Write a sequence for this structure.
C-alpha cells in the first residue's frame, strides 16, 4: 500500500508518464498505474486524493489534467461527496493545474444531488479567480 510522501510522488510520476505515453499512442496497452489509481479511488479515496493533488502539482499537461479530472477527481467526489469540497477548493486556489483538472469532472448519477450542485458552484467560483487568489 502507498503511504509515504515518496511513494505518493513516485506513483504520481509514474501515472503521469503512463498517461502521456497513452496520449502519444506509445503505451504498450498495459495500464498498470491507471488501473491501480482507479482501484485506489474506491478502496482508499484519501490516498487517491493525495496522489491526485501530487499529480496536479507535478504536471500542467492538458491530457494528464483531463484524465485526472475525468477519472480520479470525479470518482473521489462521488465517493466522498461534500466532505472533499474544502480540499478541492484549497487545491484550486493554489494550483491552476488543479482548476483545469476540475473542468473535466462530470456527474456520476444525478447532477441534482447536493454535492454536485455545491461542486458546480465551487468550480464556477474558482474559474472567476484565475490567479488562484481567494
Amino acid at each position: 500500500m502507498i503511504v509515504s510522501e515518496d511513494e505518493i510522488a513516485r506513483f504520481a510520476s509514474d501515472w503521469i508518464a503512463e498517461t502521456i505515453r497513452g496520449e502519444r499512442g506509445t503505451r504498450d496497452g498495459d495500464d498498470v498505474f491507471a488501473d491501480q489509481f482507479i482501484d485506489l479511488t474506491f478502496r482508499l479515496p484519501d490516498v487517491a486524493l493525495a496522489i491526485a493533488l501530487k499529480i496536479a502539482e507535478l504536471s500542467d499537461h492538458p491530457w494528464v489534467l483531463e484524465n485526472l479530472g475525468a477519472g480520479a477527481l470525479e470518482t473521489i467526489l462521488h465517493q466522498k461527496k461534500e466532505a472533499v469540497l474544502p480540499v478541492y477548493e484549497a487545491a484550486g486556489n493554489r494550483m491552476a493545474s488543479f482548476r483545469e483538472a476540475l473542468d473535466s469532472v462530470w456527474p456520476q448519477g444525478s447532477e441534482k444531488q447536493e454535492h454536485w450542485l455545491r461542486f458546480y458552484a465551487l468550480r464556477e467560483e474558482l474559474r472567476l479567480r484565475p490567479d488562484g487568489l481567494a
